[in-house]
Amino acid sequence: MIEFMFKLDETSDEALYMQLYRHIRDEIVLGHIAANVKLPSIRRLSAHLGVSRSPVALAYEQLLAEGYVRSKPRSGLFAAKLDTAGFSAEQRLGLKSRAVTASGTDSASAPAALPSPKRAYHASQREEVLYDFGYGSVDVASFPLAKWRRLMNRCLQPANSRLLLYGDLQGEPELRAEIAVYLRQMRGVHCLPEQIVVGAGTYHSLDLLFQLLQEDVTCMAAEEAVNDGVKALFEQFRFDCQPLQLESDGVRVEQLYSCAAQAVYVTPSHQFPYGMTMSAGKRIKLLQWATEQNAYIVENDYDGEFRYSGRPIPSLQSFDEEGRVIYVGTFSRSLTPSFRLSYLVLPLPLLERFRERKHSYDQLASPIFQMTLQMFMQTGDFERHMRKMRSVYHKKRDVLLSALRQAFPEHVDIIGADSGLHVLLRVQSRMSETELVEAASREGVAVYPISAYMLAAQMAEKGQHEASTVLLGFGGLSESDIRSGVGRLAQAWQAIRIT
């Protein structure tokens, strides 16, 4: 069973069912949907895309009539076997730019631009915290340990003794093949397994990337608030780092033209920590800037799989036709941070630079974990796990919002709740960010300051409202702990002077 990630254009003159038909047909022809793979049911695909069942049913009928899919009674529709052998990897890469897009236009002739020592993300084991709203935790109780253990045991059989040695520098080929399929179906990313480099966590991957970029980049622009580990990497590589102001729909792209940056770091699907999604208009402008300036866009899609309202948001890389976007992904949110598995999708020039060993990178991701994950994905267990976790986190998000609204019926704003595993709580109070955090801590509740993520040191520039904003992650708490933690938070802040 697969899922689809692509763009439906409701403003197009072409019917929705034809857009859907063309997309699935092209994926089958190009081999991105393998023969005998089951397509989602009409009900499930219509719910996933946020459309009625009629367009999906019509598209499936057309595919069936033309022989691109076949029907099995009481089982569903399956991709037909087509004779498309003989294409090299380079030819398949070229085919991407010539394939018919979901809007029914030839993309080759379409416009190029479619649209501190103390951790800042969870409490340490030495801290006495009853309810930790750190964003770095996930729901470990929902992880399928028994399935993972069985697969890992298979990796430890004598026939797989090679996994006890150093692994492939680029990552195990079988895992990279599974990641490529996953990214195309779930995030709309266009890539081949040859373009993927597996890493041991996001910072390991970014460290490699920044080594590869050193020849071209002296000035790196970035969103004015970024993950604290990313800040540390910027300092380590001594890039001239230029903060870009954040607006309600993403970075102010105009500032890029005045800062002479050769690359920009963004989190477009769910900005960290503020939570906004970059608008289509700004994505177009950002890609235009990268093309005009021959610059790179570093897209960190750290939790793009978890969205709770509207249609899934495709990756920025899915809009890129010029090879300017470098995609960074991780399994820390979808699985668990302890496995330390991440990946880069490199444009071809950077891939060539990697293969020429213009870096000091070594493969630190365990080959055993890599093969276990590959089998976990290949058997369909990963897809089932992701469906479960979307539901789990959706419920937790709803519980958190309900508890916050009940505890704070006025004088607070909840920001960035449509996706991801954290929200921001802006308190209309004369208390500072530090005072809010300390008051919560005295009640055994850990919430987190957003000033730790600012590239610019002057929080005053963000205004008084920003100074009274804290971060609450919910992934690692149970629903009952979320309610209890918010209750204690209300007690901690009951003496707040509301302005």
From TrEMBL:
CDD domains: AAT_like, WHTH_GntR. Coiled coil: none annotated. Its cofactor is pyridoxal 5'-phosphate. Residues 14-82 form the HTH gntR-type domain. Keywords: Aminotransferase, DNA-binding, Pyridoxal phosphate, Transcription, Transcription regulation, Transferase. One of its GO terms (molecular function) is transaminase activity. It comes from the Bacteria. In the C-terminal section; belongs to the class-I pyridoxal-phosphate-dependent aminotransferase family. This is GntR family transcriptional regulator/MocR family aminotransferase. It comes from Paenibacillus eucommiae.
